[in-house]
Amino acid sequence: MNLPELTQALLKFRDERNWAQFHTLRHLIVSLNLEAAELLELTQWKTDEELTSLLSDDSTHQALRDECADVLLYLLLIADKAGINLEEAARSKLEKNAAKYPIEKSYGSSRKYTQLDRAGED
């Protein structure tokens, strides 16, 4: 299923429950952030090593999968409400990022694009 098909399935699910009335842009953005916080909560107090090892645990992996799905579903609702084609927006953003982060300046660096000219300070 691609993003437009998934969006249509989600809208059908929403409409069958008469939930569109609750889905103002503000409420959807708040809900997205709440779901992102639940995703973040899965990492709370854990080291990177602990997280990596937890991914082999079925229940932890399922929780991560569910929270990722919740974030995606709210993002699809926001994009639909705002008239944003996410595939186009993502492609466009990748192009913008490629211009801001040229390989020769950003390779292996965590610097923000505004600081990339500070060579050797990583």
From TrEMBL:
Gene Ontology process terms (BP): nucleoside triphosphate catabolic process
Matching InterPro entries: dCTP_Pyrophosphatase, DCTPP
Pfam families attached to this UniProt entry: MazG-like
Gene Ontology molecular-function annotations: nucleoside triphosphate diphosphatase activity
Protein's recorded name: Nucleotide pyrophosphohydrolase
Organism: Candidatus Propionivibrio dominans
Lineage: Bacteria, Pseudomonadati, Pseudomonadota, Betaproteobacteria, Rhodocyclales
